[in-house]
Amino acid sequence: MLSSRHQSVLKEIDAARCVGSWSTASALAAKLVKHGSPGHVQANWAWGVVFGSIVSSEAELEEYLAKVEWSPQEHWSDDGIMQRSSNGVRVTARYPMNISSSPKQLEALEKRLQKIGKHTLSDEEAYQLSVVTAKVYFYGSKFEQCQAAVDSLATTIPDEGAMSPVYVRQLYMAQMVMRGITAEMHGDMDTAHSMYDTALVTLKERLSSQAALVVPRGSAAGAEKSHEELVNWAEEALYRRAMASLAQDNIDRGADELAVYIRVMDNVTPATFRVFRRLRANRLHMQLERQSIGADSSAATQAKERVMASHRRQMALLKATYAFPRANEAHAEVLAEVDGAARDWELVRAFSRVESLRLLEVLYEAVFLTFNSPQVLRHLVHVLVRFGDYHEARLAFVTYRELVERQLERVKKALGSGSKIDSGLESVNNILRTVVVGARLFLVHLDSAHDCLSVVHFANDLIDDVEARDPDHQIIPPVPETIRAQVALWKGAAHGRLAQRSREPSNRADHHCAALQLLRQAAELNPQLYEAHYFLALELALGTRDIAAATAAAKQAAALDATRLDAWHLLVLLSTARKDYAKALQICEVAMRQSVWWPAYNESQPDANKSEESVAHSHTLHDKDAKAPMGSVDAGMDFFGLAMTHMAIEGRHHGFDTSLDAQPRLFALYASVFGSVVAAGDESDDVASAMEAAGISIGLLAVGDLRTGHHTHPSHLVPSQASGRPSLARSLARSVFSKHTRFSSHGEYPPLPFSASEDAGEVADVPKLPDHPGQSDHPGQPDQPKRQRSMPHLRAPSGDGSVLSADIPTEAFFDKHGGGRSSTVTHMHSNRSVYSTAVATRQSHQRAQARRALCSLWLATGTAFVALQRLDEAGGAVAEALAAWPESPEALTMRGQLAAAEGQHVMALNEFHAAVALEANNIRAAVALACVEHELGRRDVALGLLKNITRAHGWCDPEAWYWLGRLEHELALECDSDARTQMLRRALKYSSYALELESSQPVRPFSILRP
């Protein structure tokens, strides 16, 4: 019977051994031996010496192991690497850290333990002595002796004795793990798995439901710990059990067991324990998850949440493992995780805003673990565009381009010297793919054709440079035709946009010819490229009114992707340009029926007894329950535009009473498409605001967040000077560059004052519709002038002229101006208005489109009322349109036309001037203004306005040419005979051209389809 003093000491020893406080355990063991000195009961004395010696020996072993210098990263650097071979799956699973050459201290421990074994031992003492001896052999790499020491032990936990009622569980786990590892060394993976699994199941039975399965020794308060322990037996059993299953080619069981290991370790304290091995295990588990998903869409949907959680865990583990790198140092692990995350988001099709936000969290965390990595920024650009924060995407792209330009200088030097290119650099094809995304970003989302041209010029320069330096592609692989086609596509689309905005006929012709040539080149390089055929059709319709060729190209686009409505919409407008309204209605209905939004339009049949106004208010803008149930809002906007065209054709073909009957359905469709957009209000929808609302704070994610969650705020981000919101890409850019140009909140360069000098008295020349658009109509201008390297105001030119080559006509016309390209570009930007300025995010763009769509719907109603001579009702519709969008130039123009019809010319002039002030390029307002000036007798003013209109953006407007011809005819009748002949000829020329344009005029302008 032990005394109370002995029992107290034993409890303290048991607790010290459990938490790894070995100095305390050694001191208590010495105390136990002292209490068993002569004068005490002989049995207690012998017992105290034996057990105290075992504890002292184990404490000495553990204290020695705590001083062993080792690096978990180096030891487990190749752990968890999965390779498939003909023999099945092989997974690298390194054995625990041990001492390859047994030092004298371990040999002394062996001798001491052997001497203890010569005493008469109780069962409990014998068990503990065997396990401690096996541990000495194990750490000394004497695995045969280790196996012999534990083979005779039972595979069940011994009954709780008086010596170590709790610590005996750890001894049991050590025994079973050592037996499993020795079985692994002999290739017996089945036995090894059985040992690990038996040990874990047995241990769980002894623990309470709230007890932690893995408790790192040294984690308790006050415990002595210099660094991570070499082996935690419970953790080792969890990990090696999964590895043994994978080695047996039992992938499903191994993946489940690995998930258990990861889940248990997420709740370990401290949270950074075994962080590098967990990093490897989580990476392996993601590979297994990716392999199990394959091409199964249902499996991808089920695994979506698990995949996103795994990548968030991986980033937290990476942050706990790595620090911010030094200059020119990159963490390959972080970059591999970034690539894997982007690939897995695509695999599980996690494309919603919330899911994209979770990927952005991973990417922005990676920014803090890499030093100016273009690889991370490449993924940021792609995801930000998908998320819809175009302003942030622009900042990220500008930073990416600066970084890759630096890297390309190193590539050029390597190619010139014939040396090997660093493996960590961005590949040329990845750069070009990102440049294509940037070109689309600038043109489609930010409405900046000049920036788009700058980007594609950079891409062309890169392609030319690589071809010149490595013509045989021995170092750099060739650029795929698909990428070349994309570069040509967006270059041509940018020229087409500039052709529509050009105020000079010669510049417009240059841009138009370049656009056609480039778009045809894109279609030849990649015949399956939908956008190439669609943009080619649109350019043929807008630039030359070549209806037959545009119809052929639009049909090709629709055949490539019948689900996209823009090509169908163009086919409808082309049919109306041929005045074949029956065919146009047929195409329109075919296109609308195959859209997911057709049910919302077809099933919306409001009560016929309701008026148009009551129907509109029944689908009010402020309906908070309105949603977009059928499809995406972007697809809904395309469908709504097609429905508006269908209504316009109905009015032209069957009468405006018919179009008014369709109004209730359109208002109902509007509520379905835009209800959720308007209900969201004008709240901020950029990335920084979304992250703040979701409680995501970049740079503060820690391993402990996997267990406890985090709810902090991104207060450390740099606020935007234009919008006042935090900008993540700007924060990164400020760390990369000493000076960083800040753009305005709409993503444009701030315009500078510029005054254009135009001779109002000059006679406008009639632009000829070229029979062969690919050829220039200017004999003094070469067909293929040398392409400039880039725009000077956007990119500093390089002194290396070797990459300059003759190419498709682009910006040669800039050189005709005395101010150079920069001043001309500034002039182009200064003409932008509130109406046409691109917004910075997808949701704000959708909100703007919602206002414009409702305004257009009311204006269409007003047009029908005007045609039916119901002017009072037309005025009410215009008022509703202005209430929906107060800055609408079209609504102001119609209100001015109604005022002019009532003889209120001063009011009409005010409305037209306001419309022109809002949008200088609004043709309807400018022509109406000229008509009122004509009515007021100021024909010289009207003539000057019409000449400017027909020379600039109204060159294809039949009404403008008609009024110009009419004014020339009126003035000719008042002149003498010599001047009268010339003026009458001009009047005839203008009128004939107006008739030619009217014969190919669609029911709605082709420009509504401009992306």
Word description of this protein:
With 1011 residues, this protein is mainly α. Helix 16 packs antiparallel against helix 17 (390-417), helix 22 (530-544) runs parallel beside helix 24 (565-577) and helix 23 packs antiparallel against helix 24 (565-577). Strand 3 (718-719) and strand 4 form a beta hairpin. It starts with a helix and ends in a 13-residue tail after the last helix. Helix content is 63%, strand content 1%.
Q: How would you sum up the global shape?
A: elongated
Strand order of the largest sheet: 1-2
Total strands: the figure is 4
Low-pLDDT stretches are 37-45, 219-226, 607-629, 708-725, 728-838
Helix content: 55-70%
What is the distance, rounded to the nearest whole angstrom, between the alpha carbons of the first and last residues? Answer: 92 Å
- Helix-strand category: mainly alpha
Biggest pleated-sheet summary: 2 strands, antiparallel
Proportion of residues in β-strands: under 5%
- Alpha plus pi helix count: 42
On the 0-100 scale, what is the average pLDDT? 80
Radius of gyration: 39 Å
Mind sketching the topology for me?
Blueprint: H1 4-19, H2 22-35, H3 42-66, H4 72-75, E1 82-85, E2 88-91, H5 104-116, H6 123-139, H7 143-151, H8 167-185, H9 189-206, H10 233-247, H11 251-266, H12 275-293, H13 297-321, H14 332-347, H15 353-367, H16 374-387, H17 390-417, H18 428-445, H19 449-469, H20 481-501, H21 505-525, H22 530-544, H23 547-560, H24 565-577, H25 581-593, H26 598-602, H27 612-618, H28 633-654, H29 656-661, H30 663-679, H31 687-693, H32 705-708, E3 718-719, E4 726-727, H33 728-736, H34 820-830, H35 842-867, H36 871-884, H37 889-901, H38 905-918, H39 923-935, H40 939-951, H41 958-973, H42 977-998
Antiparallel strand pairs: 1-2, 3-4
